[in-house]
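Hi there, hope your week has been kind to you so far. For a while now I've been wondering how a particular protein folds. I'm sending you its amino acid sequence along with the backbone structure tokens. Could you read through the record and tell me how the tokens relate to the sequence? Take your time with it, there's no hurry, and the full record follows here.
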Amino acid sequence: MKSPEQVQELAAWLAATDIGLLELRTPYGVLRLGRTAESGNEVVPLDADEDEPEETAPVITVVAPSLGAFLHAHPLHAAPLARPGERLAAGQPVGLIQIGPLLLPVNASQAGTPVGHLVPDGQAVGFGTPLVELQPDD
């Protein structure tokens, strides 16, 4: 995505808008386009901030293995199975899918820390619906 032709094309598109800064993050790096006081209204490539923190590992999304209602906790317990900020082991449940009286566990694919639930408790979900964001362990 860093060929000069692609950068020029993005800059031209950005110049036609009132957007002041475009930051595009890819697995290959960061591209920043914006307007500076020196460039006036012209869009120019900007250097990435040197003081930005190191990029952490990408967040993994745990998805629904089946359709049903996503439950954060077992119906007989008040505590959620996965609290944001609490470390989980690989295979540990992050929630449950309820299909009538049947409860199916939704397990973490790898060890990590839940960032947050993407679906409210009790909401109906379909196969592959993103449910929980998980920050994997280093």
The radius of gyration is 21 Å. The chain has two domains: 4-46, 60-136.
